[in-house]
Write a structure and sequence with these properties.
about 230 residues; mainly alpha; Alpha-Beta Plaits; 2 domains; three-stranded mixed beta sheet; rod-shaped; transmembrane helix; Cation diffusion facilitator family transporter, putative; Cation_efflux_TM; membrane; transmembrane
């Protein structure tokens, strides 16, 4: 359970750092444009951009392929970061090729602005990319209940109340990282028929199967009581 709480914190921090780095690069690019741009050796810049782009996209593909088995949000964010790096390098490569091509032409005056303008455009595209991860991470940290999961648990619980003649139920659902925490309390009538422990366990098994997604990442608690205070 400790890992469940740690995971969204790390994901949120990583997403904020990625966005912050892109914002910082955008500010530097705007400052460079206002200062008259900067001169580059475009032939060396092209070689650097090609190598960086190839490595970044290879790492992104490798991470996504591995994550089909691992299912880790950490790896997913890392792959997204590599995509961002590769996209940045690809955009800069196009800009560097353009800058190299205009050398000795009437457009050569634009060459100092090629790098900062391309960087600014890429940053504007990259900045929103981690926002979804950041939003989900903070929702997990604050234990915001996913609406679809809550509705599913409530449907299962309502059906159990109807089939076994319970008075009502209380459900508490939260998602923390990859973990799902579900607590169900069923209020039984005080004058209801007695049941063996095996029968109560069988009802729990039915509820667990109906909720589904049984794995080490699902924390499911099911309680039966005649005292409503235990459920509130």
């Amino acid at each position: 359970m400790g890992f469940w709480h740690l995971e969204p914190m790390v994901l949120g921090l990583n997403g904020i750092l990625l966005t912050g780095a892109a914002i910082y690069a955008l500010i530097n690019a705007i400052g460079s444009i206002m200062a008259g741009g900067r001169h580059l050796s475009f032939d060396h810049a092209i070689i650097y951009a090609v190598l960086t782009m190839i490595i970044a996209f290879f790492m992104a593909a490798y991470g996504r392929r591995a994550n089909k088995t691992l299912g880790s949000n950490f790896i997913a964010l890392d792959a997204k970061a590599w995509v961002m790096t590769g996209s940045l390098s690809a955009a800069l490569l196009l800009a560097f090729v353009f800058g190299f091509a205009i050398q000795g032409t009437a457009l050569q005056w634009m060459s100092p602005y090629v790098d900062p303008v391309a960087l600014a455009i890429v940053c504007l595209v990259v900045i929103p990319m981690p926002l979804g991860t950041i939003k989900q991470a903070f929702a997990d940290i604050l234990l915001v209940t996913p609406a679809a999961l809550k509705e599913h648990v409530d449907r299962v619980a309502a059906d159990v109340v109807h089939r076994y003649n319970f008075d009502y139920y209380r459900s508490y659902v939260a998602r923390v990282g990859r973990g799902k925490q579900i607590e169900l309390y069923f209020i039984a009538p005080r004058d209801g028929p007695a049941k063996k422990l095996e029968e109560w366990d069988q009802i729990r098994d039915e509820i667990g199967e109906a909720i589904g997604d049984e794995s080490p990442d699902r924390w499911l608690t099911i309680a039966f009581t005649t005292d409503p205070e235990w459920a509130d």
